[in-house]
DUF4124 domain-containing protein (Stenotrophomonas nitritireducens), 231 residues
Amino acid sequence: MRPNPSTAVAGMLLALAALAAPALAQNKPADTGKKLYCWDNARGERTCSDTLPPEAVNSARQEFNARSGLRGAEVQRALTAEERADAELAAAQAQVDAAAAETRRRTEQAMLSTYGSEDALRRVFNERAAIVDNNIKTAIYNVGSLREALATQLSVAGDRELAGQKVADKQAGDIRQRHTELLAQLRLQAAFEQQRKALDVEIAETLARYRELKGIAAPADAAGAPASPPG
């Protein structure tokens, strides 16, 4: 009796499947999901486990493949709030520094293309210098006026005390108020004078950079002191 062709084909397919099964099993990737964690505990002791306890989540650790033993990753410890703030500040400062460098580059390009001489560049600072100089003059005038008025009030109060009379509360209050105003004006005067010094430095540095970019030598009087604030 001749074999049934359909039965013969089915038998061949079953035989091929049986031969392919071991090969497929060998090519199947191993389960790599299981990890082994190693970290230092609070006492500095090395600890390893296939589970990561909550207290170790923020600790520096190494992760290994539990099946192969190969190291898969190294995780740094979580930053503290202060460290995060410092890192954010450093990143912000780096951004500001980069922006400042770019601004300076553009400013220098504009300076070269816009100003044909040092005098033209100096005129840019004239308005700022005039404002600061006027503030200094006003503060000096106010200090002088307040000092003179305070001296007069103190003299009158002194005469009353020498005459055996009591200094009135209102008069004493006026003296204290005038003294407070005088101190405030003195602080303003000092601040304005400091602004003028800073502006002089800025002008000198800008002119020096301009000469450097232009490739020109400084004039003979460039080393002279900048104009001082009005007295």
Notes: The CA atoms of residues 209 and 215 lie 10 Å apart. The beta strands are 35-40, 46-49, 61-65, 71-75.
